[in-house]
Write a sequence for this structure.
């Protein structure tokens, strides 16, 4: 079993596993049409509970170290949304992803934890390549992925029914390349600042 204490922490954010008590919070997030515009549309309580049980909770023990976690503001301990490092449905590819509640957009939070998750995936879990997909018009998320050091490489579609036969923007980066950039980024930082 992977040591959960190794989940990444950033200057402002931390992650924790979901549990069934988070259903109300997740329902709130899934009911906001702005939040859900590019992640499959709003989900009702039954759909959210099914997702929480089958896709989130059951996934942890089957895939040590990977998952979809609640993202917390370390100062207030309030949830701000979720981040994930998990398999693209039906694929062997590992993806990074995030969904934040609207009050927390535009503060750099998605990027901050995405960078920490990429480092965690490449260093702790030794994943060789990490990917991401976004809806084609989701320019905000595409900008986050580029800032986090992934590279756009065309478009892809996937057979799993959850993807409804649609085409997505495809992002990828190999461990060696990303870690070389990360070392440069860390060494360019003033002393005392964390990434
Ligand atoms: C996408 C999302 C995660 C971004 O979160 P965030 O914390 O605001 O992201 P950050 O603050 O780290 O960075 C956002 C960047 O994108 C830019 N941006 C935002 N909307 C944009 C748009 N429509 N077009 C281009 N750039 C955009 C911002 O200016 C910012 O760039 P900057 O730091 O260079 O100024 C957030 O809006 C969200 O949760 N949306 C709903 C769920 C979702 O779409 N998830 C992604 C699924 S692939």
């Amino acid at each position: 079993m992977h040591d959960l204490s190794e989940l990444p922490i950033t200057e402002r954010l931390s992650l924790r596993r979901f549990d069934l008590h988070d259903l109300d919070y997740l329902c709130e997030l899934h009911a906001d049409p702005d939040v859900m515009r590019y992640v499959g549309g709003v989900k009702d309580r039954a759909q959210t509970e099914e997702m929480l049980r089958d896709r989130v909770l059951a996934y942890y023990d089957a895939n040590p170290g990977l998952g979809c976690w609640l993202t917390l503001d370390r100062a207030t301990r309030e949830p701000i949304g979720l981040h994930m490092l998990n398999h693209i449905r039906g694929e062997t590819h590992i993806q990074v992803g995030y969904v934040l509640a609207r009050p927390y957009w535009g503060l750099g939070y998605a990027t901050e934890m995405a960078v920490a998750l990429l480092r965690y995936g490449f260093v702790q879990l030794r994943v060789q390549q990490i990917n991401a997909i976004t809806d084609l018009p989701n320019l905000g998320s595409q900008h986050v992925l580029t800032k986090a050091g992934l590279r756009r490489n065309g478009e892809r579609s996937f057979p799993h029914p959850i993807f409804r036969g649609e085409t997505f923007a495809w992002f990828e980066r190999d461990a060696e390349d990303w870690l070389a950039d990360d070392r440069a980024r860390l060494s360019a930082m003033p002393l005392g600042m964390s990434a």
